[in-house]
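EI: anyone free to look at a 68-residue chain?
SC: sure, send it
EI:
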Amino acid sequence: MSKTLAFKVFCMEAYRAEKKLTGREAILLFKKYGVLDYLDKCYDVLHTTGRAYMIEEIDKFIEVRKSA
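SC: here you go
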């Protein structure tokens, strides 16, 4: 498994657990708002941050995409 794929799985699982989502709900949410692409593009920066910061960044990203 590549580093970026492992990171995306970690992010999705952390976000899912924090927001009390099912795996399916998390996948659909990440796909709908392009979160996986965002995590891929920002891997170099985001993988150095903590879990709480990463979840906050995903929340912010989704909110911006909802507004667009």
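EI: Residues 3-19 form the longest helix (17 residues).
SC: 👍
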